[in-house]
Every structure is written in C-alpha cells, then in structure tokens.
Write a structure and sequence with these properties.
The structure holds 2 protein chains of 2 kinds. Chain A contains 6 helices and 13 strands. In chain A, a hairpin with a 5-residue loop joins strand 8 (about 155-160) and strand 9 (about 165-170). In chain A, the strands form 2 sheets. Chain A has a 9-stranded mixed beta sheet, with helices on both faces. In chain A, strands 2-3 form a two-stranded antiparallel sheet. Chain A has helices spanning about 35-55, 70-80, 95-105, 130-135, 190-195, 240-250; strands at about 1-5, 10, 35, 55-65, 80-85, 115-120, 140-150, 155-160, 165-170, 175-180, 200-205, 215-225, 230-235. Chain A is α/β, with parallel strands linked by helices. In chain B, strand 16, helix 7 (about 255-260) and strand 17 form a beta-alpha-beta unit. In chain B, the strands form 4 sheets. Chain B has a 7-stranded parallel beta sheet, with helices on both faces. Chain B has a 5-stranded parallel beta sheet with strand order 15-14-16-17-18. Chain B has a 3-stranded antiparallel beta sheet with strand order 8-9-10, with no helix packed on it. Chain B is elongated, with a radius of gyration of 22 Å. The chains are: A alpha/beta, B alpha/beta. Chains A and B meet through helix 4, strand 7, strand 8, strand 9 and strand 12 of A and helix 4, strand 7, strand 9, strand 10 and strand 13 of B.
C-alpha cells in the first residue's frame, strides 16, 4: 500500500504578525514555524494505517521554501518513510488550485492508494487543496474526518458535522481523506527516531517542473482587521488586576452577590 | 448579477446558514435562485425558484451526486456566483464544484467590498482581500457573517430534479453526540479553559474559579481533543452553544468556531497572555495576564 500525506509548514498562530513589503501576506521574518496542526493528525493516521496494513510506505510531501523541510523532518521522525519537497520560494503567492495542481502533477504518476491531508491550513484556512487534489486525480474524497478504521478492504470514517453530530461513511481505496483535529493522538518524535529521520530520503523537486496552471483567485491585499468591539484591556500587577476585575463584575453583571 | 444559493437541510430541517446565503445575495443586490437536496416537507422560506432534489433519492452524504445535480442547475441558471455556507456541507461541496467549473473559490467570506471579498487568515488575526479571476466564482460564507434583517419569509417555486442513487461513498448513518453530564446551556456563569492552560493539571484552577463564581467549567476544542475535558464541556460550533450572564475565557485564542458558541453571552471576560488574541474582539474585558498567577488570585479574592 502506498500512502501519501501532504503537509504544510505554518507560523505559530500566537505570533505577532507583520505584513510583507508588498502588503499581500504576512512577513515570514521573525516567526516560529511548525507543522500545520491538522496535518499532524494526517501524518499520524498515515503511519497507523501503514503499520496496520504491512508492506506499505508513507511518503510525506510539502511545498514551500527550504525551511518547510523542518516540518517534513518532523513527519519523518514521527515515522513517515521518505519525503518529497516541492521547492517554491513563492508558494505563499499561489492559490489553492495551483498548489493542488502541483501536487497532482507529482502524485498522478505514483498511484497512491490513500492520500491524507489536513482539512485546512491554520494560516490560509481555505479548506480546498485536499478536495481539489482528489478531483484532479479522480479519487473519491471525504473531508473533516474525526474517526478512521480500516478492515483490510474497506475504510469506515466518521465525518464531523455541526453540534456534535457525525456521519459515518464507508469507502474503498484509492481515496483521499482530509483530517480534522482530534482524529487521533499525534505521537511525539522520540530522540532515536529524530536521529533515524536524518538518514531518510528527502528529495526536492522544482515547482516549475510541476506547476503549469494560472491562479483562479488573486489576493489584492492582506491587512489587519479593524478592531470592532474590542472591550477594555487590563494590564499590570496581578493584585490590582484582580481588584479591578471584581469591581467591574460587580458593576456590570449580577453574578456576584 | 445572478447568484445560485445552496441551501442545506439535515435530518429534515433547513439549516440557518441557508438564510445567510440569502442575506448575502440581498446585500450584493444579486438575483437569487436556490438549490436544495432536501424534502418537500421542509422548504426554505424564500420567494424565488428552488431547485429541489429529494434527499431520500440523492443521499444525505453523497457529494458526487449532489455535485452532478448542482452542475445541472448551474447549466440552467448560468449564475456568476454560487454561494454556500462555510459549513461541513459547504466546504465539502464547494471545491468539488469549483474544480468541475474551473472556477475560483473564495472560502469563508466575512464581507464584500465592491468586487472584492474579505476572508480571514491566521485565526482572524489577518484578513485577505481577494477576487476570483474566473467568470464564475464559488464562495462559502463564514457562519454568522451575514444575516437577514427580519425572519425569513416566502414560498419558493419548486423545480424538481431527478436524483440517481449511485455512490462511491456509502453513507451509513448519523452518530449523535453522547448526551448526559453537564448542560452548559443552563449555567449562568461559565469559565472555560483553552489551550493556554498548558497542561491538564491546570484545569483545576479553571474549575476552582467556576466554583467560586457559582458556575460550570467549559472547554475549547483543543482541550477536549487532548482528552483533558469531556466533550459535553465543549463550547463552540461542534459542541454547545451557550449564552450565560458571564463567560470567562481562560487561555482561549478565539477561533471562529469557539466564538460561534459563546458570543451571545451577556458579559465576556478573556484572560490571555496574547493581547492580540481574536477573543479580544468579543470580550468586554481582556485581562492580559498569566493564568497560573491570575486565576488563583481571582479565585481567592472571590472567596473572601
């Protein structure tokens, strides 16, 4: 069984963002980078399936500048077998359609049985690439899975809907699944596995060899949202903060007797 | 401008997002037709053409067939915009449609500015202003971003579509969330823990504050996903929707899914080390402090 897992490297969302010089996206300077959180669940599920299926391999793929190899190394340290890095210093300027097209150009020749992606990225959040990729490869796809079981021939997945409801869907491979938070418990790479990962294959392919289409969506600007509501901000010494907040709760609410 | 609006029904009920697509169409002054895989027994309140396929025939989750039906309607209506909710149904169907039509898709629209659409990025810390380059644009709308001024009204003119049952994906039914345990919707005070509590042991500080305020403790999704709290404590679009007199968000950054579950609270206090956290948008007071120091101090002060 051949399993592909597509991951993205994103900034820590607690970061204080600045805009790039063109004002089209955040500046990539002075940020702490990590694997997109949704993708950690995708990597974990891919590894679990490989270990269950036997005679299987997990290929991890990511698009971006060289720094994204750090996220790929984490996936390799978690247990992925080898990595395919699509080198693109300007990946932030591509739309979902272009990103999916580039992955499809690589994956189309590889006949993967299963592809896992995160349901969305934490920075862009479009929730499109997985489904576009599935469509380009002619694969059935289920999004937002929070449960996965494989019985040797069929997979049973649980899709998360609103208000705690889930739908149960059965499908055969080949297929693509997009992973929601909580699908499993992503493992932490152990030190021996981090060392082992350094010896795993990680090849880089230039984006120009794979991307042949124009964007369908253009970004004219990125900006900070206007603070609409935004109440009072209290800062300072803990003792003073406590007194101020209690006084405010007494004045504005009826919950303190 | 002509817009095709994708209504949603689930388990025999029209979902509220359906009317948000209508509000969006009104806002941009588009002529609207609607598409629904649902039932004649539960039609959306809307004056206009409704293309209806029977969910019993098309299947509750059969995206290939829903897409086939939708493409048939797009060919008949020839809209410039197809509008869906950014919901589990909408974000699943929209890219399939966009690819089939070679259309640009704009996800989770919160506002429109002329021909441009505004979408959130980085947990709503940023916004992107975007525009599709294609003749037809597929958009999904952030839940709650657009709403009708009054109650929805009207009766659609129904055009029936014939669905075919054929599926690569087999829908095997729904699973309800486990019931029982605490009913947060009845609590007057809720103190919720987010990822910022750092480790499961720190949940005790949140619970202690909830007790001191005579309320219940809740949790954000990451805390529940990590197994630190039960699902019946989860506040947000995939958990419970609450509107207590006081909501205290401890270490919760304020993802839209969480805000959807608590923004109707009467008074919101956020406690966070990140003064830019999006929770600040809905908080009446944002206390910039370390939870480990502030929560015990506040609890002790309230117990005096």
């Amino acid at each position: 069984m051949k399993i592909l897992v597509c991951i993205k490297q994103v900034p820590d969302m607690e970061s204080r963002f600045k805009l790039n010089a063109a004002g089209t996206w955040y500046s990539d300077q002075d940020l702490a980078w990590r694997m997109n959180e949704y993708d950690e669940y995708a990597v974990e599920q891919a590894i679990q399936l490989r270990d269950q299926a036997g005679n299987a391999e997990v290929v991890v793929l990511s698009i971006g500048p060289d720094r994204v190899k750090e996220a790929m190394k984490k996936a390799l340290a978690m247990g992925a077998d080898r990595g395919v890095h699509i080198q693109d210093d300007a990946s932030y300027g591509k739309d979902s359609y272009q990103i999916a097209s580039a992955i499809a150009a690589y994956a189309g020749e590889q006949n993967f049985d299963v592809i896992f992606t995160g349901m969305q990225s934490q920075d862009r959040g479009s929730a499109q690439v997985g489904l576009l990729l599935a469509g380009m490869l002619g694969l059935p796809a289920v999004t937002t899975i929070v449960g996965f079981e494989y019985d040797g021939s069929k997979a049973t997945v649980r899709r998360e809907l609103e208000g705690g409801l889930k739908s149960v869907v059965k499908l055969s491979f080949p297929a693509l699944l997009t992973c929601q938070l909580g699908l499993n418990t992503p493992r932490y790479p152990t030190l021996p596995n981090i060392m082992k990962a350094k010896k795993k294959e990680l090849v880089s392919l230039p984006i120009a060899d794979l991307l042949k289409v124009e964007a369908l969506v253009a970004t004219s600007a990125t900006r900070f949202p206007e603070r609409k509501g935004g109440g009072l901000i209290l800062e300072g010494d803990v003792g003073e903060l406590t007194e101020k907040l209690v006084a405010m709760l007494k004045e504005k609410t009826t919950v303190l007797k | 401008m002509k817009a095709l609006l994708i209504a949603e029904s689930r388990q025999g009920k029209i979902l509220p997002g359906s009317y948000e697509t209508l509000a969006f169409a009104k806002k941009i002054g588009a002529e609207a037709a609607m598409f629904l895989v649902g039932s004649e027994n539960a039609l959306p309140k809307f004056d206009g053409r409704l293309y209806l396929a029977d969910v019993a025939e098309a299947g509750e989750y059969n995206p290939d067939e829903h897409l086939r039906l939708l493409l048939e309607v797009v060919a008949r209506e020839n809209p410039q915009l197809v509008v869906l909710s950014h919901s589990s149904y909408g974000w699943d169907l929209a890219p399939r449609l966009a690819l089939a039509l070679q259309a640009g898709q704009i996800s989770e629209v919160v506002a429109c500015e002329g021909d441009n659409m505004v979408v959130p990025a980085c947990n709503s810390k940023l916004q992107r202003v975007v525009r599709a380059q294609s003749g037809l644009t597929v958009v999904t709308l952030q839940a709650g971003a657009f709403s009708l001024p009054g109650d929805p009204a009207g009766t659609p003119t129904v055009e029936k579509l014939t669905a075919q049952a054929s599926a690569k994906l087999e829908f095997a039914g729904y699973e309800e969330a486990e019931k029982g345990g605490v009913d947060l919707s009845k609590a007057e005070v809720i103190v919720s823990a987010g990822r910022g509590i750092g480790k499961p042991e720190n949940l005790a500080m949140v619970e202690a504050l909830a007790n001191a305020l005579g309320g219940e403790y809740g949790a954000s999704r990451p805390v529940v996903d990590s197994g630190w709290a039960e699902h019946n404590r989860q506040v947000g679009s995939t958990g419970q929707t609450v509107a207590p007199k006081l909501y205290v968000a401890c270490g919760i950054s304020g993802a839209i899914q969480h805000l959807a579950g608590m923004k109707k609270s009467d008074f919101v206090v956020a406690i966070n080390t990140d003064r830019d956290a999006p929770i600040g948008e809905v908080a009446d007071v944002l206390v910039v402090a370390d939870l480990k120091q502030f929560l015990p101090a506040l609890t002790a002060r309230l117990q005096k």
